[in-house]
Amino acid sequence: MRSLAVRRTLAGALAAGLLATAALPAGATEVKIFRTQSQRGFLAGTLENIAVDPLGRLRLGDKSERLTAVGEPFLLSAAVHPEGWVIGTGNAGRVLLVRESGQVEQLFAAPEPEVFAVWADGDGTVWAGTSPNGKVYRLPAGGGEPVAWFEPGETYVWDLAPAPGGGLLVATGTDGKLFHVTGQGEGELVYDSDDTHLRTLAALPAGDVLVGTAGEGFLQVLQPRAGTWSVRTLYDASEPEVVALAVAPDGTRYAAVAASEASRVELGAGGGQPSRPEGGADGEDDDEDGPGDGSVTITVTPESGPSEPSPAASGTRRPGYRGPRSQVLAVSPAGVVETLWSFEDETVFDLLWHRDRLWVATGLDGELYSWNGARMVLEKDVDERQIVALLAADHGPAFATTNAAALYLITGGTERDGTYTSAALDAEQISRFGTFRWRGDVPRQGAVRFSFRSGISAEPDRTWSEWSEWTEPVAGPVAGGEVGLGELPRGRYAQWRARLSAGDDASPLLHGVELSYRQENLRPKIEGLSVLEPGRILVPASFNPSDQAFEPTSPSPDGVFRTLEPAPTGDDRLKSLWKPGYRSLTWNAEDDNEDELIYRLAFRRAAADQAVNGAAPGAAGEEDGEDGWLEMVDELSDEHFVFDSTVLPDGLYRFRLEASDRLDNAPGEALSAEQVSEPVVVDHTPPRLVAVERVGQGRLRVTIEDALSPLTRARLSPDADEWSDLAPEDGLLDGRRETFVVAAPDGARLLLLQVEDAAYNGVAHDLLRAR
């Protein structure tokens, strides 16, 4: 284990240090900083007894205890009971009573496998809604015999709520019906929805009922008036499901809408058209004697146990949906709807208004939030993956989890100790980690300490370094400090963790942290070096020859090569133009450190050219050895270079490109890469006329030859008439020496033969004069 020294600094000195660090150059091999100082940033890590407060600061969380574990694979529903809390489970369809002492008692085991809805009257009577083959059971207070109280004829019972004026409301699917049950077997259909499921219910103070649907995602209010029920839609969500409701004393209504595959209702991509199940909710295949009428189009997907990862752990949204995974909405008493918060990755499972706050239960990572009037505050982060139900309790809400099933209580007060572990921070390359700086408030008798590790793999595993020893506790009062990480092994990834200890009945606060690093310098990469065809030049795309001009300049007073420098336009895009006698080099280069690259070009004759010109091996300028290279230009920042090639004698040449990252690295640490072009023909000499001889009446055989380039064009014009293309005797115009047979009309005074080579050197010969 390694120990790391910690140094305390004054707040002012720390702030100055942070400003100085933030002003470092942006080059990747300069010092960079991982900075975490927001709620979103801190929530990327793992919190143990730690919360994130409304200002995005880490603090010790509210004290909570795991009241009991529930020995069931799935916990599906929960409600307050006079003696504690009642919960419904799956896949065994049990109804359990969890007493305030933590004792668990089975009240009922239903024939149906899932209990998606429970409710308890003030006298202890429990109502349980089971699925599929939906039924409502009454469990008398004091342990009386359970009774099948009502059968709605629907596949699923999704929620139960007390009805205005007495009785029980039963929300069902798959036909989206609401029943008012007034006695055993006595139920009246009060609302037949156009949607597939009535997913959740909430009683409103005036006797109205708030309803959330699944399929189309409607938020509706039902109003019982003079023996009839009217319905009014408050909101049509883009998400397909309204999963939870809550009501504040001032009449504000809250709704959670979701588009998550962690839902218990599997809806197709058509925004409310259900998909046909592959099997029943209890894991058995459906057949003609199964639930419903044999055409059930809903699959119940309860949250999975540890042996089978749940959809919530996959981070997936419903097919065809592109928005946030969940949103929390607020509806004012006047009916105005606003979005309080969007969760990109978490699925909201339940809402509760309790002790002047809205509480929000989520899954992917088992996080409990509260709304402080301006933002969501992370209150608890538990090991179980989903918090599925929120329940009123004395000090704070009780909350039930699945994956695995348990019941927690917030007991009041603040945790005495907590640990925060950051996400793995990616430096993108092997890096050296420098200094860790932190800002915060540590109260008297409180303390903060830190530990660090690094590795190469994206997910921390046994190949990572061990956690360093905890730094010495930084006791309060203090406002920040820094830790040198010189002994932390180099790696691509790093993690830090903080341990907060309370003092003077107050929690330390961690406002923000910064971890500096510097990437190991990597050699630049040259993806390609090309020489464009003769005469093709590159200019800014906005260049207009009518109002701009090229100015030939030389990169140095003693330089040989003139370059084309167009009037500046500020446009980095390029287009190609034609300028005889000029050549263009172009390339692509990159640096994995994102360093700025600077280029150098050199040239020399190619060895093949010496053989063409009869030079002896070993002559100056051959390809082997460094002495033959001559500099063309240095300190070039563009990825192209246009130059006047007429200063080079005809021959074969190679060009060498060097890319260096020296601008962003200290002397001795810079790296460079080189690439040499293929042999390039520099040819300024037009083809020559070798011979003209008469081969018959009015016919001439003409021989044309070029020293370096193949011929590409030949055409004839008698007496300044229109040009006509000529083909050589072998039928293919592609050699450096070609022979043509042409007609010489009687009486012609001028017979022009124009030829051009691949370097665009052209010449015209009068064949009559040449004879």
Map the helices and strands.
Blueprint: E1 6-8, H1 11-22, E2 32-36, H2 39-43, E3 46-48, E4 50-52, E5 58-60, E6 62-69, E7 74-81, E8 84-90, E9 94-99, E10 104-109, E11 114-120, E12 126-131, E13 135-139, E14 147-150, E15 156-162, E16 168-173, E17 177-183, E18 186-192, E19 197-203, E20 209-214, E21 218-225, E22 228-236, E23 241-247, E24 253-258, E25 326-331, E26 337-343, E27 347-354, E28 357-363, E29 367-371, E30 376-381, E31 386-391, E32 398-402, E33 406-414, E34 417-421, E35 425-442, E36 447-455, E37 474-475, E38 478-484, E39 491-501, E40 509-519, E41 525-531, E42 536-540, E43 550-553, E44 563-566, E45 574-578, E46 582-590, E47 598-605, H3 607-612, E48 630-636, E49 640-644, E50 651-660, E51 672-676, E52 680-682, E53 688-696, E54 699-705, E55 711-718, E56 724-725, E57 737-743, E58 751-757, E59 762-766, H4 767-770
Antiparallel strand pairs: 1-38, 2-40, 3-34, 4-5, 6-33, 7-8, 8-9, 9-10, 11-12, 12-13, 13-14, 15-16, 16-17, 17-18, 19-20, 20-21, 21-22, 23-24, 24-25, 25-26, 27-28, 28-29, 29-30, 31-32, 32-33, 34-39, 35-38, 35-39, 35-40, 36-37, 36-39, 41-46, 42-45, 43-44, 46-49, 47-48, 47-50, 50-51, 50-52, 53-54, ...
In short:
By secondary structure, the chain is mainly beta.
Could you explain the architecture of this structure?
- With 771 residues, the chain is mostly beta strands.
- Helix content is 4%, strand content 50%.
- Strands 1, 2, 3, 34, 35, 36, 37, 38, 39 and 40 form a ten-stranded antiparallel β-sheet that branches. Strands 47, 48, 50, 51 and 52 form a five-stranded antiparallel β-sheet that branches.
